[in-house]
Every structure is written in C-alpha cells, then in structure tokens.
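Researcher: We're teaching a course module on how sequence relates to structure. For the next exercise, students receive a sequence and then see the predicted structure as tokens, so they can try to spot secondary structure elements on their own. Here is the exercise chain.
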Amino acid sequence: MSSVAYLLGLIVGDGGLYLLRYKGGRTEYRVVVTQKDAAIAENAAKMFHSLLKELGLGSKVQVISGRTRVEVRVSSKRLWQLFNDKLANLEGLAPDERIAFIRGLYDAEGDKTGRRARLWNKNRRLLDLVGSWLRELGIESRVYLDDKRHGVYVLEVPSPYRRRFFELLYPPQPPDSSGVHEWINEVPTVPARGPANPPPGAQSWDPRRGEKSLWSFTAACRCGGAGGAERRWER
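Model: And here is the predicted structure for the students to work with:
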C-alpha cells in the first residue's frame, strides 16, 4: 500500500512508533508524525483517517498544534504493529511503495527550497538504501557527512538528475485534475490540547527531534516487528 509506505516515510523522518507503559500496568501503542509544515501534517491526518477506516478501526486521530510543530497522533496497537512490520521489511518494499516511502521521507527531512535535492538523516545505511532505489530508477545520488558534530548525513541528487527526482516524487498533475490525491478525504480531525510529547508517567523516548534526533533504522531492523519490542532513538 503506497499510502502506508508514505506515512512510514514521515514516521521514520519525523515521528515515531511508541510502546508506552504507565503505572498500573496499562500500555499504549502510539503512532506519531510531527511536522513544521501544517499542510503536510493535515494530509497525514487525513491519510490516517482513511487507513483506519479501511482497517475497520475506530481509533481517533489527534492533531496537536505546538508553538513550532504539529503532531499527528494515533493510539492503536494494530496500526502500530502494521508500521513495525513494514519497517522490519523495508528492503522488501514494492517499487511503488519505495517511491511513496522516499516521498514521505523527503517531506519530513528534505530540502524544501526546491533549489537542491537533499535529504538528511543520521543513519547512513538508510540513505544508502534510498540511493540504491533511486539508482535502479536511473537517478544518481551521493551520500556524505554533512554535520560531523551531530553525525548527520545527507543524500544529494546532482543537478542533471534533479528534475527527474522531483517528478518521480511529485508527478505533475493533469490540467483537469483537482491536484488532490485519492487517499485524501475530507474527514474532520479530533482536536487535542497539550504539548506534543508523551504524557507524564509514560515510559518512552522523547519524540521531538531536538538536534537532529532521528529514527535509528539499524535498531529498527534489529528489533523487527515483535509486538513487545520498543523502538529506540539515537542522538
């Protein structure tokens, strides 16, 4: 499912899959996307709505607006497991899912100026994997260390391939098209108040990026899709 792959790209780039444990033995399985771009967050919320409906789940989609970021949050064990399983088999994504994943990752961590095609992440293995997918599609790229202090790598697509890269991720819409993807439905979100982080007492890592605090792709693959495994973050 391309929509699942796109959301997974957003989650890996700027979000998380959390198994929260509370006092009294209660647990919560939380799927989170955080974004500075309110439009991307809104589209993600609509996609979550459509996915929950397709799966027959009644979980609520919460949209939490902070001072600098918007968090989209869904509490659902089945959804949490779906994304964990997909992440554990990331290398086995179908061709259309790979493109959708890269689009989600770029929406989360890509250069938004449009002047250069760059994608940042702390995990070089993840960027190398993305680069190999692009190479299979005839798009060259290179990965290098961009921020030595924080260990941040960047995948950059050189100018001769830049247009093809952006057209791959964001195909031009036909003149008679509304420009809205079929998976975006006008479904109201559930407003929520409070800071965009886990509630007090919950055992989880901080979902906010801080200084490039990004998803550990290596740890994710190592954990696999086990229902009792908590994902971890690397700083």
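Model: If you want an answer key for the exercise: Strands lie at 15-21, 27-35, 61-65, 70-75, 117-121, 142-147, 152-157, 190-191, 214-215, 233-234. Residues 177-198, 200-235 have pLDDT under 50 and may be disordered.
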